[in-house]
């Protein structure tokens, strides 16, 4: 098994607390409302939203996958940190055992934040990852961050 690690940082005009609440804690409610064409629904399969919870993300019509399941490994609401693992879904295919994600929201000046993410792709055997697929995944995540950020900027009392 090999592990390929990708890191990424993006700045946000919204506070760490609000972005964390929107993108992590309440994402199962907010994201399907903001991006219904991409994410149809998010179901809590097991748990209450904290560590050990399993979420099933159901994708909209016309997407490549029908669903995927994440397990929340660590949820630190005081430090705005979450670690979760993709444990089931077409994204894993025959080449990936799992993908482990870490996301941290760090406060910056002026009530803004930096979102730092790390993705660990645990491959089966010596398989090499397709860089284009990784790039596409990063772009989808960035688009989702921007949709959420725009929503929060337009609605300053949401998660305030």
Counting helices, strands and paired strands, the structural category is alpha+beta
Largest sheet: 7 strands, antiparallel
Taking the alpha carbons of the first and last residues, their distance comes to 43 Å
> Ranges with pLDDT <50 over ≥5 residues?
none
Notable characteristics:
single chain; 160 residues; alpha+beta; seven-stranded antiparallel sheet; 7 strands; 26% helix; globular
Model description:
By secondary structure, the chain is an alpha+beta fold. It contains 3 helices and 7 strands. It starts with a strand and ends in a 6-residue tail after the last helix. The mean pLDDT is 92.
In short:
The protein is 26% helix and 43% strand. By secondary structure, it is an alpha+beta fold.
Topology:
Blueprint: E1 2-12, H1 16-25, H2 27-34, E2 39-46, E3 54-59, E4 67-76, E5 81-89, E6 96-108, E7 112-123, H3 131-154
Antiparallel strand pairs: 1-7, 2-3, 3-4, 4-5, 5-6, 6-7
């Amino acid at each position: 098994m090999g592990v390929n690690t990708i890191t990424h940082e993006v700045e946000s005009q919204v506070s760490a607390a609000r972005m964390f609440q929107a993108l992590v804690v309440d994402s199962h409610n907010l994201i399907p409302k903001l991006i219904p064409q991409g994410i149809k629904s998010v179901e809590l399969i097991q748990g209450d939203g904290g560590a050990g919870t399993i979420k099933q993300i159901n994708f909209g019509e016309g997407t490549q996958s029908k669903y995927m399941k994440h397990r929340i490994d660590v949820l630190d609401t005081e430090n705005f940190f979450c670690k979760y693992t993709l444990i089931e879904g077409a994204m894993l295919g025959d080449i990936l055992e799992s993908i482990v994600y870490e996301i941290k929201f760090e406060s910056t000046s002026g009530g803004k934040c930096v979102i730092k993410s790390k993705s660990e792709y645990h491959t089966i055997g010596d398989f090499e990852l397709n860089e284009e697929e990784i790039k596409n995944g990063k772009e989808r995540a960035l688009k989702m961050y921007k949709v959420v950020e725009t929503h929060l900027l337009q609605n300053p009392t949401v998660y305030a």
